[in-house]
Write a structure and sequence with these properties.
By secondary structure, the chain is α+β, with helices and mostly antiparallel strands. The protein has a 7-stranded mixed β-sheet, with no helix packed on it. The protein is globular. Strand 3 and strand 4 form a beta hairpin. The chain is 18% helix and 20% strand. The protein contains 3 helices and 7 strands.
Length: 212
């Protein structure tokens, strides 16, 4: 029998005890000091619905009218552990060859005696644009199939994921040229005096930065 049920039974028994044969039968009130319950039938036991322990005292942490959780043992279990993260790391940029209409490589050359900036944007089909410092198209042209194959080979051999992102001398070199490469999702910048050797082959495979 649960504690709430036992408490309810005690209350009912107490109420019935106030109406036993030992009390007055003519409806008159009992005299003070006789020990009999009053005719109002007020129960002297624990309030109905209040969970008690064996002494009739409500259980700690439990208010009147609440039934104890039959599955609760009163002992706190271990704190729930957070679920392990299932998020995967961001994939590295892909250096796979682009489609015919997509950009294969873009190279910007800046500095030098005139301080100019010129950009080459070469598409996967060999067509390319020459841009000036204001990103305005100077002219358009197309690489031969052999020149495009040479450029693709140089780009793949350069191994852009392993190249340093920036290669600059400790002391600036007056009128030196600087190159910025964008290929396969990677960006690499280098001064001509500290240009990694694999990028030298890429530069030699590019068309001229300015029209002849």
């Amino acid at each position: 029998m649960g504690l709430a049920t036992a408490a309810l039974a005690l209350a009912v028994a107490a109420a019935l005890g106030g109406c036993s044969s030992g009390g007055p039968k003519d409806g008159s009130s009992a005299k003070p000091g006789t020990g009999a319950s009053s005719s109002t039938g007020t129960a002297t036991g624990a309030p109905s619905g209040t969970a008690t322990d064996g002494s009739g005292t409500p259980s700690p942490g439990q208010s009147a009218g609440q039934s104890p959780d039959p599955g609760s043992t009163g002992t706190a279990g271990p704190a729930p552990q957070p679920a392990p993260s299932t998020s995967a790391p961001a994939p590295a940029p892909s250096a796979s060859p682009p489609g015919a209409g997509e950009t294969l490589v873009a190279v910007t050359r800046s500095g030098g005696f005139g301080g100019k900036a010129n950009t080459l944007i070469i598409k996967g089909d060999g067509s390319f644009l020459r841009l000036n410092a204001k990103a305005e198209t100077v002219d358009r042209d197309t690489l031969s199939a052999a020149a495009l194959a040479k450029l693709r080979t140089a780009l793949q051999a350069a191994d852009f994921p392993r190249l340093p992102r920036i290669s600059m001398p400790e002391q600036p070199v007056f009128d030196s040229l600087t190159y910025a490469f964008r290929y396969g999702g990677y960006e690499v910048a280098a001064d001509q005096t500290t240009l990694p050797r694999p990028l030298e082959a890429v530069l030699s495979a590019l068309p001229a930065f300015e029209p002849r």
